[in-house]
Amino acid sequence: MTVRAPVIVRRWIVLAAAAALLAGCTSGPAEPAAPSPVRTGYGGRPITGPAEPGTAPPVTTPPAGRVVDLPAGTHPWGVAVAARYGTVYLSPRHQDRLDVYDMASGAVRVVEAPGSARMIDLASPDGPLLLPAEDKATLYSLALPSLDVVSSAPTRKQPHEAVVVGDTTFVTEEYGHAVRAIRNGKTVADLPQAVQPGGITAVDGRVAAVDVATSTLFVYDATTLRLLAALPAGQGPSHVVPIGGSRVAVCDVRGDAVLTYDLAGTPHALGRAAVPGRAFWIVADPGTGTIYTALANTNLVAKLRVDGAGRPALVSTAPTVRNPVSMDLDMTTGALYVGGYADSQLQIIPASAFGQR
């Protein structure tokens, strides 16, 4: 049996079709769709998202210095040199462990860690080792050389890097969207200006944190926790280090550059130097005004000098293992310890590879 649609329904279909036809025959253009709102961060700065290190081609130039093969699948992301103990610590990506390189014997051993970190740093030459465990939302402090846990503090999602200033530890919470201040194991403040805080350091009682999402360098007073400045930081920065006095340097990944700032008084920019690749990681010898930056996509480390006015200039480069994502500097010898992410390698580059120190 055939079921007929009610008359009222058939009339509605006809009227709707006629209306659509008339709309299509109008002479004026259709109304444009409303534009999607631009996501912004502090002060209305556009959110561009973090700048990644990028991929690197196979190595064609022999790496400078010496290369040590790490356990398969290590993919080191963080490197910390503890010269006082003759060891180098490497944090494998997405693994609850540390690889420990013995400077004297050249041996590498694997040690279980309480969580998985990218950036690891020494709070002082004696330690402890600061390990922001991304998978545990916890900042751990590990004694050296035992690597025993001496303290821990909860964080928001994915802590990235930490620095100690007096009795306060500051840790960037990359997906917690804040810089956390911790005293005596307890959180005293969450500084919310950064959308996605990455690298962090401190000089002269001031803390500098990079917002990788809005390309901003935030400067705080380490005692009062007050925001002092929010400075433009290139096209896509990642990390920041002290370079002597009240000055710091930032590696601008997207901008293929190193930027310098003075945090004293009213914090301000000092200079910029172009480098031949994506400057993803940065270390410095504040005593000599020397900066090194790992160019992750071109298999190079660049050496820069800072002049009296704080302006950086490129001096030379040295070839590295594939995809140098991070590194640390032995302040006693000037040697660089570079983590090759792609092929799970550690490279030791002597200061002489760059010419006169």
Overall description:
The structure is a single chain. With 357 residues, the chain is mainly beta. It has a single domain (45-354), classed as Methylamine Dehydrogenase, Chain H, CATH 2.130.10. Helix content is 5%, strand content 47%. It is built from one helix and 28 strands. A four-stranded antiparallel β-sheet has the order 1-28-27-26, with no helix packed on it. Strands 2-3-4-5 form a four-stranded antiparallel β-sheet, with no helix packed on it. A four-stranded antiparallel β-sheet has the order 6-7-8-9, with no helix packed on it. Strand 19 and strand 20 form a beta hairpin. The longest helix has 19 residues, at 7-25. The radius of gyration is 25 Å and the shape is globular. It starts with 6 loop residues before the first helix and ends in an 8-residue tail after the last strand.
Secondary-structure map:
Blueprint: H1 7-25, E1 66-69, E2 76-82, E3 87-92, E4 97-102, E5 108-112, E6 121-122, E7 129-133, E8 138-142, E9 149-154, E10 159-165, E11 168-173, E12 178-183, E13 186-191, E14 197-203, E15 206-211, E16 216-221, E17 227-232, E18 237-244, E19 247-252, E20 257-262, E21 268-274, E22 279-285, E23 290-295, E24 300-306, E25 312-319, E26 324-329, E27 336-340, E28 345-349
Antiparallel strand pairs: 1-28, 2-3, 3-4, 4-5, 6-7, 7-8, 8-9, 10-11, 11-12, 12-13, 14-15, 15-16, 16-17, 18-19, 19-20, 20-21, 22-23, 23-24, 24-25, 26-27, 27-28
